Amino acid sequence: MLNSDTRAWTEIDLSKISHNVEEVRKLIPSTSKIMAIVKANAYGHGDVACAKELVKCGIDFFGVSSIDEAVNLRENGIKEEILILGYTPPIHFPLLVKYNILQTFVSLEYAQKANAFAKAYDVVIRGHVKVDTGMSRIGIICQDHEYHIDDVVNVYRLPNLDVCGIFSHFSVSDYLDEENKRFTENQIKLFDRVLDDLRHVGIEPGTKHLQNSYGILNYPDLKYDYVRPGLLWMGVTSDDAIEIRTNPDFIPILSWKANVSLVKQIQPGVSVSYGRHFKASETRKVATVAIGYADGFPRCVSNKGYQVLIHGQYAPIIGNVCMDQMMIDITGIEDVKEGDIVTIVGNDGDKQIKIDELSRLANTINNETLCWIASRVPRIYK
Ligand SMILES: *Cc1c(COP(=O)(O)O)cnc(C)c1O
Question: Domain 254-353 is classified in which CATH homologous superfamily?
Answer without folding.
Answer: Lyase, Ornithine Decarboxylase; Chain A, domain 1 (2.40.37.10)
